[in-house]
Amino acid sequence: SLSPRAWRVPSLRVAASPSTVLALAAGAAAAPVPAVPGSPLSDREYEKFFARLHPPWQANMFCLLRQAYGCLSPSILRLDRAENHGEIPKDLCSHIFPAPLHQRI
């Protein structure tokens, strides 16, 4: 009688290193979905977005700009576009900060 070892077909045995398995798994992953203009950033994209606002005083400066000028500041508009894949969602600024207080009076 044949031993179980003799039943194996040598051409079907594959030895793969962990790095090979990871590389194959990464290649088999679905392709990233293209961003829709006006959609929010993914977690990874937010990490990159906020990395540009370092040191913390720079992020604070943009908060102060938004409070002072609302969405009329070109810097705030650039950030809003960057945060929403190039397009500011309709009415994003109208209900948050439509205009500085002195312009609403």
From TrEMBL:
GO cellular component: acrosomal vesicle; nucleus
Top-rank taxon: Eukaryota
Pfam families: PBP_sp32 (PF07222)
Signal peptide: 1-30
UniProt subcellular location: Cytoplasmic vesicle, Secretory vesicle, Acrosome
Keywords from the UniProt entry: Cytoplasmic vesicle, Phosphoprotein, Signal
Entry function: Acrosomal protein that maintains proacrosin (pro-ACR) as an enzymatically inactive zymogen in the acrosome. Involved also in the acrosome formation.
Protein name: Acrosin-binding protein
